[in-house]
Design brief:
Number of helices: 5
Oligomer: single chain
CATH superfamily: Zn-dependent exopeptidases
Largest sheet: 6 strands, mixed
CATH topology: Rossmann fold
Distance between the termini: 19 Å
Helix content: 25-40%
Order of helices and strands: EHEHHEEEEHEHE
CATH architecture: 3-Layer(aba) Sandwich
CATH class: Alpha Beta
Strand order of the largest sheet: 1-8-7-2-4-3
Shape: globular
Strand content: 15-25%
Radius of gyration: 14 Å
Length: about 150
C-alpha cells in the first residue's frame, strides 16, 4: 500500500476529470465554498443546494457521508461545527477515516483513494493534522482488497 504525501498529482484542480469518470474516489472535509468539497462538488456538477444539504446532514449527524451511487465523493464531518468541538478526538476521527476506507472498499471499489484535507477556510473547522495521522496509523492495520493507492493531496 502506498501513501503519497502532498502528491502534486492530486489536488483540487486536477482531480475533477478522474472524479467524473469514477476512476478516483475523493475524500474531503464537509465544508462548502473555496475548499476541496466545494471544488469537487462543482466538478461533478452537483447542484449547490444539494451539496450544501449533504454537508449539513453529515456535519449535524457527525458521520461520514458518501454520494454513492452518484459520485465517488465522500465527506468527513467538520471537527468544529455548531458548538461541537471534536478536535483531538482520536477515536471519532478514526471512525470517520475507517468509514471512508469502507465506502471505497464496499461500495466504490476504486483503486485510487485521495484525501484532500486542506482548504482556504476549512482549516479552522477541521483537524487535518489529526486526520492525516489517523490515516497513516490505519494504513498499517487495514487490509484492502480494491484500494491500491491512497494519496494525501495538496
Amino acid at each position: 500500500m502506498s501513501l503519497l504525501e502532498l502528491s502534486p498529482n492530486y489536488n483540487m484542480e486536477n482531480c475533477s476529470e478522474e472524479l467524473l469518470e469514477k476512476s478516483l474516489h475523493v475524500v474531503c472535509p464537509a465544508y462548502c465554498g473555496l475548499n476541496p468539497y466545494g471544488a469537487m462538488s462543482c466538478a461533478v456538477r452537483l447542484d449547490h443546494d444539494e451539496a450544501m444539504d449533504h454537508a449539513l446532514r453529515v456535519n449535524r449527524a457527525n458521520e461520514t457521508g458518501t454520494l454513492y451511487p452518484k459520485y465517488p465523493l465522500t465527506i468527513l464531518p467538520l471537527t468544529d461545527f455548531e458548538g461541537r468541538n471534536d478536535s483531538g478526538n482520536r477515536e471519532l476521527m478514526g471512525k470517520h477515516v475507517m468509514d471512508a476506507f469502507e465506502a471505497n472498499e464496499r461500495y466504490w471499489k476504486i483503486p485510487k483513494l485521495v484525501f484532500i484535507l486542506g482548504g482556504y477556510s476549512c482549516g479552522q473547522y477541521f483537524d487535518a493534522a489529526l486526520c492525516e495521522e489517523i490515516i497513516r496509523e490505519k494504513l498499517r492495520t487495514t487490509d484492502f482488497v480494491h484500494t491500491r493507492l491512497i494519496a494525501l493531496a495538496d
